[in-house]
Amino acid sequence: MPLQVLAAGSLRRVWPPLMAEFERQTGILTETQFAPAGMLRSRIEAGENCALFASANMAHPQTLLAQGKALAVQRFAGNTLCLTAAAHCVDAQSSWLTLLSNPALRIGTSTPGSDPSGDYTWQLFARLEAEFGIALRSRALRLVGGPGTQAVPDGMLAAQWVISGGQAELMIGYRSYAAALKSHRELRVFEIPSDYNIQADYGLALCDARAEPLQAYLTSSTARKLLMLYGFGA
């Protein structure tokens, strides 16, 4: 029987090659479902079968460990945030900060509480509000990653869907998407300097001892190289 895996949506692009290599090495099959990590944690708490949970933060795995619903927790990857903007809003003087400071531009985000991307974004906004005195959280539109938001269509990235569909001119999301987003002519991607950026720590919750080989693989140098190839940090 395949190992049942629940994984954060931001891992969707890197997960197929990761699991293909794991299955090649071990002969152990996996089945993965993706969703915002906070929503996945709620499903595990409600009793859903899960051998291993791959979260976009450490808090959700640690909560499961404290509840006795996980056997072990381990960090396995890192990420940061970037800003994506509609190309028609960008000129030669534009920077990540001038764009966020423009009150005429709508800012799309994921949903805090349900999706760690939203939590990290709110931490970023609090930091920038304190440093520069600009209003961000009050302007933010929670467009993805929540129980009441629309699902991003298959084959599209959240920032691409939000901006191309006219829901917002700006979108904060994970830097691991940056290379893929840069391939779209209607988008411009801006790095956020490390002095202001937020470190995202991805954690594993081992919920069934049968998944110990998968936990070991995901923290191996082989998996780390694949994760970095797809834009994740060590």
UniProtKB/TrEMBL annotation:
Gene3D superfamilies: Periplasmic binding protein-like II (3.40.190.10). GO terms for biological process: molybdate ion transport. InterPro entries: ModA/WtpA (IPR050682). GO terms for molecular function: molybdate ion binding. This is Molybdenum ABC transporter substrate-binding protein. It comes from Cedecea neteri.
